[in-house]
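Quick start: read one record
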Amino acid sequence: MNHAAFWRRLERRKPEAAMALGLVRVEHALNASGRPDVRYPSIIVAGTNGKGSTCRFVAEALRLSGYRAGLFASPHVYAPNERIVIDGVAVSEDDLVATLSRLEQRMSELTWFELFYLAAAEMFAEASVDIAVFEVGLGGRLDATNATANVIATAITTIGLDHTHILGDSLEAIAAEKAGIMRPGIPVVTGVLPAAAAAVVERRAIELGAPWVVVEDEADVPELPRWLRRNLALARRIALEVAPDIDVPDIRLASQRPPGRWQVLARRPWRIIDGGHNPDGVRAAVAAWQEICDCTGTLYLAVPATKNLAGIAAALDDWRGDLVAVERGDGWWSAAELRQCCGLPSRLATLQDARDEFLTGRDHALWLGSLRGLDVFAEAVRR
């Protein structure tokens, strides 16, 4: 069934939903739906970078150990039903559209993100999942996922400067927002955090009597970038907090990462797409290229206008190769601005030309700047 018209209509809710943070609407909606979220235990994961892959690894560790796991993740890269996964399989588009349509008619006040969250909460209950993993959309304290009841573990992957116009312009302010997902007496598992952010999390853990576990090691999977090795180790520790019987080899989990995160389309030559969209994420991707690919290449860069372009440009200092500045139109930094700010040997290209060249050129190539917009590679990924 073709649902293109439904998705176009739902997309129109995004502007009003974009930054409408708060729990009142979603709490009301959960109550009206009979609190589906109390019918299974849940894990909530926040973080500036790495929460998408960490959530996927947690859900897969649980699934491969015999648990029926639900996963709510965002954003989607190629198709909306990627956001809701049950027992390792994305829900069908037909079922998702039917659920969203029903909820939209009953609860017109909900934002775009809140509709998806509530759909996940209901679909997990209907599927009788053993446990659900919820990826925070933005921040934590006021994110819709934080309305979830029956939380048995929380986690914070990393804390850095992103979405500063909403979450605050300091590590302390952002850490306070992310620490808002923590619960009294419930364990919180984190990666290694900057000192200023760690101090905030520590204070909150003491206030709540919440055991705090810091994961410092990396999984032993050399073909993964360092940040994914860290996320995998973090995910294993999160899963062990709620299911001590988990025993899945890291190498098996490593193949389960979500789309758009160091996604290798080809190796000869290298063609890799990655959703790194802030200075820390871009710096990590460049380091991964040097570690794994160890060659010069062409960097294709397309960055939303809301992102810190100066910080991203600084994160490219160690890039060895040329830059193709991609023109994407309204809502994105222009190709000319990208070229001027980054200061690398560069040229400009339209989105279509850049995509075609990236997929068919002879040079090693890395595409960076945002998870949003990677759907231009959907057909290539399916092949």
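The chain has two domains: 4-254, 263-382.
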